[in-house]
Amino acid sequence: METLSSDSEDSARRGGMMESKTTILRRHLAGTETLMVAGVHDGLSAKVAERHGFAAVWASGLGISAVQAVPDASILTMGELLSATVIINDACDVPVIADCDSGFGNVHNVTRMVRKYEGAGIAGVCIEDKTYPKLNSFVDGPQALIPTAEFCAKIRAGKAAQRNPDFVIIARVEALIAGLGQQEAQLRASAYAAAGADAILIHSRSSDPDEVLTFARQWSGAVPLVVVPTKYPSITLDEIARVGIRVVIFANHALRASVTAMDDAFSELRRQGSSQTIEASIAPLTQVFELQGVSAMKALEKRIAA
Ligand code: SPV
Ligand code: MG
Q1: Each residue of 40-94: pLDDT tens digit?
Q2: Distance (Å, rounded) from C-alpha 157 to C-alpha 162?
Q3: pTM of the prediction?
Q4: Is CB count within 10 Å lower at the N or C end of the chain?
Q5: Which residue among 7, 10, 72, 264 is the active-site one?
Q6: What is the mean pLDDT of residues 180-194?
């Protein structure tokens, strides 16, 4: 699938020979096909997602926190999340949408955040209308939102800070998560679109897909809709497309799959005291080497040898 390494692709982009990841993401958003985005938490998961044909990846705050074994509760700093996101961006050739939680503070934090993320080559960011520090939407506890006007100011600050007009800012509405109902969710989404958001992520923790489907049916269509079907996995791509939702993010499936895979392997190793019984079910090292770019490294060695 890959014809250029990230480094050579970066320099090709810098030389103006290729479309930037930001422009690619912007084009995807303007298209008509529902975009499937894979949630990833490190370079390796980004690479695997890309190989399965995902057109973009989501640098998940939950995932990046989880791999450092800390809660998704604004424990990591913006710098830590950005470093992890840059690793993800370097590892794959598809656009990265960065989960930027509630924007790391007020309008001034959002301004700096957009400059830093855009400057690092990240295609787009998503900010949510929760208070700072935030708490993962699926953790029981207060899911307090900031006032609509305050979040609109953050969106305007972000849009004013971006340099490339194609850079994407997604506004995430947490009204349904906070139990404030469909009307409040629609009011907030409309206000965020009017403030300049390029897309609206409508989040839900209902196990019934109807909550987001109802929202989507009532949506004005001012900007595209994004969903994260973690708690309502029965929803189909067809249903999503039929109500006009443009982007679906499978935010944490790689993370959860890897926890199960590690659990299974470690439990079998402890039980057997040998890896014999799991060898056939775990990736061979050749596959790991390929993901690490060992063959590209060898090819380069050959090319530059005198
Ligand atoms: C994430 O992946 O960090 C998200 C999605 O923000 S969720 O965990 O569903 O809130
Ligand atoms: Mg998150």
Answers
A1: 999 999 999 999 999 999 999 999 999 999 999 999 999 999 999 999 999 999 9
A2: 9
A3: 0.94
A4: C
A5: 72
A6: 98
Q: How far apart are CA 228 and CA 97, in angstroms?
A: 13
Q: Tokens 């490190």 map to which residue?
A: 42
Active site residue 93: no
Is the Cα torsion angle 166, 126, 291, 33 positive or negative in sign?
Answer: negative
Q: What is the pLDDT of residues 207-250, one digit of tens each?
A: 999 999 999 999 999 999 999 999 999 999 999 999 999 999 99
Distance between CA 300 and CA 175 in Å, rounded?
A: 51
Strand locations in the chain, DSSP E?
A: 35-40, 56-59, 96-99, 124-128, 168-173, 199-202, 225-227, 247-250
Rounded to whole angstroms, the Cα distance separating 146 from 257 reads 34
Compute the 3-state secondary structure of the chain and give helix, strand, coil in percent, each to the nearest 5.
Answer: 50, 10, 40
State how far the alpha carbon of 102 is from the alpha carbons of 83, 113, 114, 244, 267, in Å: 18, 11, 13, 26, 38
In eight-state DSSP terms, residue 138 is T
Spatial neighbors of 202 by CB under 8 A, at least 6 apart, are 172, 173, 176, 185, 189, 212, 215, 216, 219, 225, 226, 227
Residue whose pair of structure tokens reads 């993370």 in the numeric block: 255
Identify whether the C-beta of residue 293 lies closer than 8 Å to the C-beta of residue 44.
no
Q: In which residue are the tokens 């189909």 written?
A: 236
The amino acid that residue 147 corresponds to is: P
Q: Is 61 in the pocket of ligand 1 (CB under 6 A)?
A: yes
As a whole number of angstroms, the distance between CA 103 and CA 128 comes to 7
Each residue's pLDDT tens digit, 8-48: 455 555 555 689 999 999 999 999 999 999 999 999 999 99
Percent of the chain with pLDDT over 90: 93
Question: Does any ligand 1 atom lie closer than 6 A to the CB of residue 62?
Answer: yes
pLDDT value at position 63?
98
